[in-house]
Amino acid sequence: MGIMSSNEPRKRLKAAESRRALLNAGLELLKSRGVAPGLDRVTLKDAIEMSGVPRSTAYRLYEGGRGQLEEYRTDLLSDLDRSVDTNPTGTAIEQVLAEVAPLIESHDSLKLASALREVIRVVANTHVEAVAESLEWRVYMSSLASLGTGVEVDADMTEAFRLSAQHFGEQFVELFTELSSAFGLRPRDSLTLRDFGALVSSTIEGSALHQPVEPRLADMKRSTGVDGQLQSWSAAGIALEGLVVSWFEPDPHAKASADLGSWIAW
Q: 117-153: per-residue pLDDT in tens?
């Protein structure tokens, strides 16, 4: 094994800093130029000029077989996906779980169902709002729409979007695992939490995409309160409620399971 030069860590750090500067420049260009054409509005040349990264350094970072611009846009897409702020969703989950803790601890099937329903309502409302207000997400969706179809489809970018969507869905698998355990549920045969995550992601995105032109999708009144009072539901929350009913079943090993059938009667 060769001895690493003392300059190697410094080179790697400089490369990482240059990459970060180029990606930050790309994000700023996307935000400033509008979201309609998506990634097609950003070039590596523009990012180099805005970031101040030397051209030679940028071309060393993106010198693969697919072309420098394609590589840069793929990298920018991945970074764009990770820049969508999910902190509001995490905070909402913590708060609503604390509020319904007595219902969960009761191990009563009807109370468990009521608590789970409230978790779905609050978290869906919060996540749709956070996504809909994210300029990064809008650029991501407009870029997805610009992929093309049929013979004009960009295969490399399509694969990049597939991996990006997979990553976004998988970041919630741990959460779904914890929630299903807390409410005494498990996925039905042949269904997985990873696939459930993909469905949740696409449902949230579809609802958020339509919400600006159809505001009522963010505020649908339903008599789902503990005492039958009206509550505000997003369209995504209503859809997720249906997904949960079809995707999960009682876990025979759980002390108690949420009675999802009780939702149908409400």
A: 999 999 999 988 888 887 777 777 777 776 666 566 6
Do strands 220-222 and 231-233 pair parallel, antiparallel, or not at all (unpaired)?
Answer: antiparallel
- pTM beyond 0.70: yes
**Residue 155 phi/psi, 5° resolution?**
-65, -40
State the Cα angle at 218 between 217 and 220, rounded to 5°. 70
Q: How far apart are CA 76 and CA 212, in angstroms?
A: 26
Map out the domains of the chain as residue ranges. Answer: 7-81, 85-264
3-state secondary structure of 148: coil
pLDDT (mean) for 8-24:
77
Q: What is the DSSP letter of 185?
A: E
Query: What's the rounded Cα separation, in Å, for the pair 26 and 18?
Result: 12
3-class secondary structure, 232: strand
Residue 199: exposed, middle, or buried by beta-carbon count in 10 A (0-12, 13-18, 19+)? middle
Among residues of the chain, what percentage have pLDDT more than 90? 32
- CA 236 to chain CA mean position, Å: 13
Confidence class for position 2, pLDDT limits 50, 70, 90? very low
For residue 177, give Cα distances in angstroms to 101, 120, 121, 183. 17, 14, 18, 10
Compute the Cα dihedral for 25, 29, 32, 35 and give only its sign.
negative
CB 113 within 8 A of CB 258: yes
221-232 confidence digits (pLDDT tens): 999 987 888 999
Phi-psi region of 191 (alpha: psi -120 to 50; beta: other; left: phi over 0): beta
**C-alpha span between 45 and 42 (Å, rounded):** 9
- In the chain, what is the straight-line distance between the N-terminal and C-terminal CA atoms, in Å? 68
Spatial distance between the Cα atoms of 150 and 134, rounded to a whole number of angstroms: 30
